[in-house]
TrEMBL record:
Protein name: PNPLA domain-containing protein
Domain RING-type: 537-581
A GO biological-process term: arachidonate metabolic process
Membrane spanning stretches: none
Source organism per UniProt: Friedmanniomyces simplex
Positions of short motif GXSXG: 643-647
Domain of life: Eukaryota
Length: 1133
């Protein structure tokens, strides 16, 4: 029935006056009459006549019935125990964080998942698809609480809140109950943080205000002024409040700040002060109006706070804000009295530098960190020393990559010099104010909220930021100093060019000059050993460092090539670190490079817990297919391995630890038994659920972390001092997720530059001590919510969740990372991208895939471009709502869904299908065989759960059987042959030339092998080739190289790998074959150079497999490489 029809009377929705003829019109509800009336009938009621009043002495109030019910349900909770229990359960779901104690009694921050849930449900700060910048509004009531509330929370909430709302019921108790607490909170927190970007705003809510006040008092401005007037005597010597007098006297005597009124005192601790009155129940329209006034005040305060943080360059997104809060908690639980420094945390979590100016600033802040005492180290001294280093870097860049003299080109660098100085002064250089209580340590952009603070956090005086050293006063001197040094270096370079033989080039001279400048620069600063960065190459200040050296320094590729000696196409050898020429390395340090024109081989490993044994057995099968009688390790055939969760652990074991597959299997079997350690009461229904509820995870987390540490060790994944060269320098990355679940992460043993609008964050820390160790990276990628607690990394106060939240199948990550690591391949296909799953029941999976659109959500989107990322954002947010693991009642409700998500083989297969659609959109040439292969053995039954450790041996047996099926044997052999072919590449000997009188292109190149001369791998590859030679009734077969041209019949050229060549590989571990010299008819045609191999498997037989980097258009590849070389060292404009 329609409740608005005239013949139906519905309470609150239609007029209840029997005389009314317009029951469909707007209805007002009267609380005192307990009836609803339309506008016309309202005035007809006797109790609504002029002069009539309600029980509180005021006229009857018009109210919207729906709004009224909302407030009544809040203010009049149900009396039934079941309903009350439900409300309490709902309240427990809102718990954000709390304090517990560990086994040793130390307070520990415990996140109950509410923050992540809020972030998943909240809109972006600046519009759709933009970043979120959370703001904290804290509501505080009058309580007699313990240490946590009286000591710890005031410091935390005061330090991190944008608005603090103090709620009290009786305005008459404001002075004694709230004002004192308000200021004590401020006093407890004010001096317990440094470089805090803004003070919190204070709002007082006078709850249940009686109606007898003047009408103007409902306005927040009037209420604020009135309340402050009522406190006019609080600071009087006679009759004042002692606690407030003490605070005021402290500001007057110690901080030399004039305090005349309570309002002056409040403004010392809070950015603003506002009073909002809320009426007692019964006046619901007025209550709604005042609640909206409160929301408007909070919103205005939050906006002002956000803008203040923006000006201070301290805006924190969803994940960064959580890191700051965790760091604050850790800090205050260790020491309540020492101040929390925002800059220290920001330095730990800075993104990678973007340009020359950022890199200069990085070195300047490193000098400041080495010499932090401003009384001994002046800003001018830092930049005077920097000027020689920066000038040398500019000269190096000009000679290597520019046309013209450094003097003529200097203007191009001035912008970066200016921004480096400005940002250093604004963000890092402390104030110079000083008195007998100490020296101010606050930076310029974060100085205003509190005035002058010393290193202990104490306010030592009022006033603005002061410094004799600033960008405005020093910029001209800085530019002149750099230019003067640059001209002197340029003169020295010219003198060397004029006085030495032509066998030495300008680049040789400038490198030698730069090396001497670096040595002198770092010697003045106490030695290069104190200056190590993982985000800036401290040799050239122009690139992100990529290659770790034995001394711990990390250099960019350009500096390694410049100061090293090319050993072959794959390696550059360094005798010493250019930052300190002596001592030399004990053994020459060899840095691996991808040969020019060669492609890359990528391996992607799914997550799946104990099902990681499927991936290991699949890798073992491929290794056997490389030759059962050959000792060719699978790790030698991949350039990049990316894994998620258990796949990440396998990637670290194979690629970083460089274990054999056999050793990996043995360690993995033992790891699974130790990692999945049951909690108390396991198997006892009810008690098991209670234990899970209490701990927040099904399995104990410490045994997992200990097992990972025992098997993988604690060596840093990236950087750190090294004793010996890795045998196979494989790049390895594992996926993870931020503790809030909002941001996917990639953790790697390599470095690269960041790009705008990345679908995930590439995690790299500036300071070596903040990098994750091997076992820590493994814990970060495998912290599956529901199964294990989030992994907490103490040095950075960052939490990590399992990478499967976004990339259970990380094939998209592998593909994207390869293009970023090797930009010359950005427009090319990989030699091979092999994705390995953790087993499936193929028949059941096909059914699921057919039915998936009708009853399953789409897989988590994995973005490749900015547009993809925008389209994916909404779907991602909705899924995160279900994935966030709360501490209380929702644990049991969501646990099954969480487990299904992390245990989902379907999602991994859907991710592969999505990747296939991405590949189909490309304009790559048709390739046979395809370079994209997915191996996921069909177990003929449902694979076990990811934590089914008791089924591990049975699963191993099943996967071995599955891998021996005819179809899998074909796929595995094909992969093995493609890997063999990818070890060969063609090195260009002479430039491409157009054949005179034709459109043909003349080519000459040499087939080379990635395996080094003298290596065991080259000998074993020779044995593989030896086994390829055979004679049958159908004839003999000898492996060969062949050149073909797109759309042309037959071979352009064929070169046999002779028995003599193969014997040389086995006996002498050398590979040498005649040059390839051929012509192609169309310079824009795709050319393929392939290796012919033979298989005893009938479905394969005799096939040809592309060499590394083929097929490709030779001219396009050459032109693209020239563009990359020309652009690789340009500064970002």
């Amino acid at each position: 029935m329609d409740p608005m029809r005239g013949d139906v009377v519905v309470k609150g929705r239609s007029c209840e006056d029997d005389r009314c003829e317009k029951r469909g019109s707007k209805v007002w509800f009267c609380v005192d009459c307990d009836s609803g009336f339309c506008e016309g009938c309202w005035a007809l009621q006797a109790q609504h006549k002029p002069g009539k009043v309600a029980r509180d002495g005021y006229s009857h109030e018009k109210a919207h019935y729906g709004m009224l019910k909302v407030y009544q349900d809040i203010l009049q909770p149900p009396v039934k125990s079941g309903k009350l229990r439900q409300l309490h359960d709902d309240d427990s779901d809102t718990l954000w964080f709390g304090v517990t104690k560990d086994d040793s009694g130390v307070p520990r921050f415990e996140d109950h998942g509410r923050y992540a849930s809020l972030m998943a449900n909240s809109p972006s700060t600046f519009g759709t698809n933009s970043a979120k910048y959370p703001q904290l509004v804290s509501f505080v009531g009058v309580t007699n609480a313990e240490y946590t509330v009286t000591e710890l929370y005031p410091r935390l909430l005061y330090t991190f809140s944008d608005v603090i709302v103090f709620v009290l019921r009786n305005a008459k108790t404001f002075q004694s109950a709230v004002l004192t607490k308000l200021l004590q909170w401020g006093a407890a927190g004010l001096e317990k943080s440094l470089n805090q970007p803004t003070l919190p705003h204070a709002v007082i809510v006078l709850n249940a205000t009686e109606m007898g006040i003047e009408q103007e008092e409902w306005d927040p401005k009037t209420a604020t002024a009135g309340l402050l007037r009522s406190l006019s005597t609080a600071l009087d010597r006679i009759g004042g409040v002692p606690e407030l007098q003490d605070l005021a006297n402290k500001w007057r005597s110690e901080r030399h700040t004039e305090i005349r009124t309570v309002g002056d005192l409040i403004k010392r601790y809070y950015a603003s002060f506002t009073v909002v009155r809320i009426p007692a129940k019964g006046r619901y329209t007025l209550m709604d109006k005042q609640v909206n006034s409160l929301l408007q005040v909070i919103d205005a305060n939050c906006r002002e706070s956000l803008e203040t943080k923006r000006r201070a360059r301290m805006l924190s997104n969803t994940d960064d804000w959580n890191v700051y809060l965790q760091a604050g908690f850790d800090h205050f639980t260790r020491n309540l009295d020492a101040p929390f420094n925002f800059i220290e945390v920001s330095l730990k979590n800075n993104p990678l530098p973007e340009n020359f100016g950022d890199h200069i600033r990085q070195l300047a802040t490193a000098i400041l960190a080495r010499y932090p005492d401003p009384q001994k180290t002046s800003g001018q001294w830092i930049f005077e020393n920097l000027s020689s280093m920066v000038a040398s870097c500019i000269l190096l860049d000009c000679v290597q990559y520019r046309k013209g003299t450094a003097e003529d080109l200097f203007e191009r660098y001035e912008y970066y010099l200016e921004t480096a100085l400005e940002e250093f002064c604004d963000l890092y250089w402390p104030c110079s104010y000083e008195n007998r209580r100490g020296r101010c340590v606050t930076a310029a952009v974060r100085h205003n909220p509190k005035g002058h603070q010393n290193a202990s956090g104490r306010i030592i005086g009022p006033g603005e930021y002061q410094s004799d050293f600033s960008a405005d006063t020093y910029i001209d001197q800085w530019l002149d100093s750099v230019k003067f040094q640059l001209l002197a270096l340029q003169t020295s370079l010219q003198e060397r060019d004029d006085s030495t033989s032509k066998t030495f080039t300008a680049i040789d001279h400038v490198l030698d000059i730069h090396r001497h400048q670096m040595s002198s620069f770092y010697r003045v600063l106490g030695g290069a050993r104190y200056f190590i960065s993982h985000t800036t190459c401290f040799s050239c200040l122009k690139e992100v460092p990529e290659h770790g050296l034995p001394c711990g320094h990390v250099l960019c590729s350009a500096c390694v090539r410049a100061y090293g000696k090319k050993d072959n196409d794959c390696y550059v050898v360094l005798e010493s670190c250019p930052l300190h020429s002596v001592p030399k390395f004990q053994e020459p340090w060899r840095v691996a490079y991808k040969p020019d024109y060669a492609g890359v081989r990528l391996l992607s490993l799914d997550g799946g817990g104990v099902r990681g044994i499927v991936e290991l057995e699949t890798l073992r099968a491929i290794e056997m297919a490389l030759g059962a009688r050959c000792r060719l390790p699978i790790r030698a055939f991949f350039d990049l391995i990316v894994g998620t969760s258990t796949g990440g652990i396998v990637a670290l074991a194979v690629g970083v630890k460089q274990w054999s597959i056999e050793e990996c299997i043995n360690v993995f079997m033992d790891l699974c038994q130790k990692a999945f350690t049951e909690r108390e009461f396991a198997g006892i229904w009810g008690l098991e659920q209670a234990a899970t509820l209490n701990h927040g995870s099904k399995w104990k987390t410490k045994p997992l972390h200990q097992a990972l540490a025992d098997c993988l060790g604690r060596d840093k994944l990236f950087g750190g001092t090294r004793d010996q060269n890795p045998g196979y320098p494989v790049k390895v990355a594992v996926t993870s997720t931020s503790g809030t679940g909002r941001r996917p992460l990639v953790i790697a043993n390599y470095s690269r530059a960041e790009r705008d609008s990345e679908p995930y964050r590439f995690l790299r820390r500036a300071h070596p001590d903040l990098e994750l160790g091997l076992c820590e990276a493994a814990a970060a990628t495998s912290a599956a919510p529901g199964y294990f607690k989030a992994y907490y990394h103490g040095p950075t106060t960052q939490e990590f969740l399992d990478g499967a939240l976004y990339y259970n199948n990380p094939v998209q990550v592998a593909h994207r990372e390869a293009r970023l690591i090797w930009p010359d391949l950005a427009e090319s296909h990989p030699d091979l991208l092999l994705s390995i799953g953790t087993g499936m029941n193929q028949s059941a999976l096909k059914t699921e895939l057919r039915e998936q659109p009708r009853h399953l959500p789409n897989p988590l989107p994995v973005a490749q471009t900015v547009e993809d990322l925008k389209q994916a954002n909404e779907a991602t947010n909705s899924r995160l709502k279900a994935w966030v693991l709360p501490k209380h009642r929702r644990v049991l409700k969501t646990f099954k869904a969480l487990c299904q998500r992390f245990d989902s083989i379907l999602n991994a297969e859907l991710a592969w299908q999505d990747f296939g659609r991405t590949v189909q959109k490309s304009d790559w040439p048709n390739i046979e065989p395809l370079p994209f292969i997915r191996l996921n053995p069909d177990l003929k039954e449902e694979p076990p759960a990811l934590d089914a450790k008791d089924e591990l041996v049975y699963l191993q047996t099943k996967v071995k059987k599955a891998l021996h099926s005819a179809s899998m044997r074909v796929e595995i052999q094909r992969v093995a042959f493609q890997l063999i072919a990818s070890t060969f590449y063609v090195s260009r000997v002479v430039p491409l030339r157009v054949v005179e009188g034709t459109n043909a292109l003349g080519c000459k190149g040499k087939v080379c092998c990635r395996f080094e001369d003298g290596s065991m791998e080259l000998r074993e590859l020779g044995r593989f080739m030896q086994f390829q030679q055979h004679t049958t009734a159908q004839g003999s077969f000898q492996p060969y190289f062949v050149v073909t041209e797109e759309r042309c019949e037959g071979y352009v050229q064929k070169t046999t790998i002779t028995p003599e060549v193969i014997e040389g590989m086995i006996t002498h571990a050398t590979f040498s074959i005649d040059l390839l010299e051929f012509e192609i008819s169309n310079s824009m045609a795709n050319t393929n150079v392939a290796l012919g191999l033979h298989s005893t498997i009938p479905d394969l037989g005799h096939k040809e497999y592309p060499l590394s980097g083929f097929p490709r258009c030779l001219k396009t590849a050459e032109d693209f490489r020239r563009r990359m070389i020309a652009q690789s060292r340009r500064f970002e404009q």
